[in-house]
Amino acid sequence: MFSLLRSSNAFAIDLGTNNTLVYQPSRGIILDEPTSISFDTKRSSFFDSGASSRRMWGKNPQHIEVMHPLSKGAIANLTVAKAYIKEVIARIAQSRFFKPTILVSVPSDLNSMERGAVVEACKDGGAREVMLIKDPFSAALGSMQEIELPKGVLVLDIGAGVSDISLLSCNGIVMSKSLRVAGNDLDEAIIEYFKANKRILISHNDAEHLKKELGNLINREEVTMQINVKNLVSRLPERFVASSHDVHQAIMPLVDKMVSLTHRMLSELPPAFAQDIYDQGILLTGGSSMLLGLDCYLSAKLEIAVNVVDNPLQNIILGAGRAMEDVRYSSLLGA
Ligand SMILES: Nc1ncnc2c1ncn2[C@@H]1O[C@H](COP(=O)(O)OP(=O)(O)OP(=O)(O)O)[C@@H](O)[C@H]1O
User: What are the tens digits of pLDDT across the range 31-46?
Assistant: First the structure.
């Protein structure tokens, strides 16, 4: 199986809740786009996928349906996922009869049915062979950790749909914990906060924008941003000034769930790993690790060093690519 991944027809895919990335050995990352597909319901046909599909979300006309094949790290709709993978394969296709071998990086907590759905979606989408690797391995390899050694590496991955913390050693997972709460839930919490406390409705895009621009877990200086909203009392659109204080209030309960997840993991660490982990700290990855001050907040709460990887959004795909290319990691690949 591993030798198949060394052919020119082999690719690694990070199929994330919000973002899909594809890596080809010798070329690097060849696709990086939102995990989104849209259909024309009048013609019952495919309409668009990737960034242009995602941009239409919430602004789509009646006959276009914008769909997200994944929810919380797992395939939410198999038919939609198959159509999406087919589009991804068409984009990277080298010929009409192109049938690639694919290594897919998936969350470590997927059950066998969820893993089976990923394999089925890729095969029906046009892959010849499909192998899986668990995200924590990809994440650690993406930041050049030597996970084959008898030395603990603790990886905290906070993406869009899943937060996962795993302890790795000797090319295996010693223990892991996960929570299906991550970046998208922070956006939802912001929407709910403004609905309940300010009687206004904001879009998903604006909620994500507020999180990225005003979310700050260490600097509590008040910052504001103007957004266009719908007033739930008058039912009319209006301009509204959102503050960093509001964003902070909205997201903190969920951020504290991520702290508790990490705390539970640290409290259950086998003693043999204590030295390794306290020497090196926690490796923080996933797009949500870019929430300003999250690393310092975790570090202060848990009294341990927290190091954000160099490239949180591309770390997993780079690691999956490394696993494909380096025979030391062939045992990490499975079905
Ligand atoms: N600067 C930022 N501040 C806060 N959050 C951010 C920032 N940049 C990206 N994010 C969040 O990162 C998340 C996307 O991360 P990532 O691409 O790692 O997730 P994914 O792989 O699609 O999801 P998952 O691994 O959970 O299936 C989104 O929720 C996005 O809002």
Answer: 999 999 999 999 989 9
158: exposed, middle or buried (C-beta count within 10 Å: 0-12, 13-18, 19+)? buried
Number of H helices, E strands in the chain: 10, 18
Whether 283 and 145 have beta carbons less than 8 Å apart is answered as yes
How many domains would you assign to the chain? Answer: 3
Average pLDDT of 163-176? 97
Does the C-beta of 162 come closer than 6 Å to ligand 1?
A: yes
Same domain for 36 and 52, yes or no, is yes
* 82 is annotated as contributing to ligand binding: no
Query: Which of 18, 114, 188, 206 maximizes ligand 1 atoms within 8 Å of its Cβ, making it the mutation to test the pocket?
Result: 18
Which CATH number is 151's domain given? 3.30.420.40
**Quick one: 84 and 16 in the same domain?**
yes
Domain membership of residue 110 as a residue range: 2-135+315-332
Say yes or no: CB of residue 20 within 6 Å of ligand 1: no
Quickly state the pLDDT bin for 335 (edges 50, 70, 90).
Answer: confident
